[in-house]
User: Which sequence fits this backbone?
């Protein structure tokens, strides 16, 4: 009877004690979250209750397993499994806690700062730092797991001795990956591009949606995702419309007839912009920038507070100005001048209002 009760008491007691401690901890975090609603820390820590309870249960079982006297022939193997589980769950818990602390710090900074560009920069850095911390903790956890095996400890000396050669080989084989990782760190702390920036890469206009240590994702205006290595942004030129101040100047071109009413167009442009909520009210101009034998190029400039608004202003001005010209000044639209062809060696004459070709009566002097 004792052989049955002992394992049940030890294992069941560990599980019950884990559940009680986990429940009490969750209740305390929930109460703290309601009391301190200005910070998301306690709510984020509640997300770590699964690894927390796993660490508690594994630690209790690892410490009391000898008292259970269960499967004594496999005691070494079961103890190693519990140790590996404890290491893995501890690493999981550390990553969750670190992520909660970093996210809380970012949230406080975002609420206190009024500079959107600086907030995007901090967000990019926080995201990459969290990934780096997770990678480091994961590598350390795997290394600790491997060192629990005697064979791995015995091979440690030879591994350290050959670390130089292995490092050279790995560096050559993973040159592209390493360059992307260093480029990711350079982007995070060099402030070249940030999450939420509006960029133009390879002729595609979009918003930076995700940045990792190896790749960057741009969400285009038509909801496509362009994924490219981060080394692209450190080795090739690209447009960052959110760099510095987000204010932008939009350009609209029209090709019109030379008789287009420029002064009336300037007044109409002013009226259109005053009715457009996306115009920031800073400035606007309308000028002739080029001419051809048949048309002239008219350019309008207008300002907006960011890339999204400048796009709205441009399409609004283009559409409403064309509509106004069609209704009020149709003669200002470009026209194609045409004429009847004249055959070589003949002259054109009018007969009854129709144009026809008449042979040249002059004698041939050849």
Assistant:
């Amino acid at each position: 009877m004792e052989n049955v009760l002992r394992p049940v008491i030890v294992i069941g007691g560990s599980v019950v004690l884990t559940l009680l401690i986990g429940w009490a901890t969750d209740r305390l975090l929930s109460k703290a979250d309601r009391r301190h609603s200005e910070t998301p820390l306690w709510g984020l820590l509640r997300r770590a209750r699964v690894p927390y309870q796993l660490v508690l249960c594994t630690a209790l079982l690892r410490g009391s397993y000898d008292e259970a006297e269960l499967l004594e022939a496999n005691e070494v193997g079961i103890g190693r499994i519990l140790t590996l589980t404890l290491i893995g769950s501890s690493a999981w818990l550390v990553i969750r806690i670190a992520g909660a602390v970093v996210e809380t710090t970012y949230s406080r900074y975002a609420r206190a700062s009024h500079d959107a560009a600086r907030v995007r920069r901090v967000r990019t850095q926080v995201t990459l730092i969290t990934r780096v911390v997770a990678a480091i903790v994961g590598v350390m956890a795997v290394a600790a797991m491997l060192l629990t095996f005697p064979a791995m400890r015995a091979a440690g000396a030879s591994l350290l001795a050959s670390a130089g050669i292995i490092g050279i080989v790995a560096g050559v084989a993973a040159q592209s990956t390493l360059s992307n990782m260093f480029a990711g760190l350079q982007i995070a702390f060099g402030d070249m591009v940030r999450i939420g920036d509006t960029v133009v890469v390879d002729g595609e206009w979009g918003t930076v949606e995700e940045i990792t240590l190896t790749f960057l994702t741009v969400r285009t205006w038509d909801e496509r995702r362009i994924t490219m290595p981060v080394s692209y942004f450190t080795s090739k030129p690209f447009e960052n419309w959110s760099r510095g101040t987000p204010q932008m100047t939009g350009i609209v071109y029209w090709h019109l007839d030379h008789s287009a009413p420029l002064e009336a167009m300037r007044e109409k442009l002013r009226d259109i912009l005053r009715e457009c909520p996306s115009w920031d009210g800073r400035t606007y101009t309308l000028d002739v920038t080029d001419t051809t034998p048949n048309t002239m190029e008219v350019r309008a400039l207008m300002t907006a507070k960011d890339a999204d608004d400048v796009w709205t202003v441009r399409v609004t001005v283009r559409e409403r100005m064309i509509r106004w010209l069609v209704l009020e000044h149709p003669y200002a639209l470009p026209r194609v001048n045409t004429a009847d062809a004249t055959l070589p060696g003949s002259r054109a004459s009018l007969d009854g209002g129709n144009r026809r070709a008449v042979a040249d009566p002059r004698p041939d002097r050849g």
About this structure: Residues 168-175, 346-366 have pLDDT under 50 and may be disordered. Strands lie at 198-201, 204-211, 215-220, 225-229, 239-240, 248-256, 279-291, 296-304, 346-351, 354-359. The two ends are 136 Å apart (CA to CA). The chain has twelve helices and ten strands.
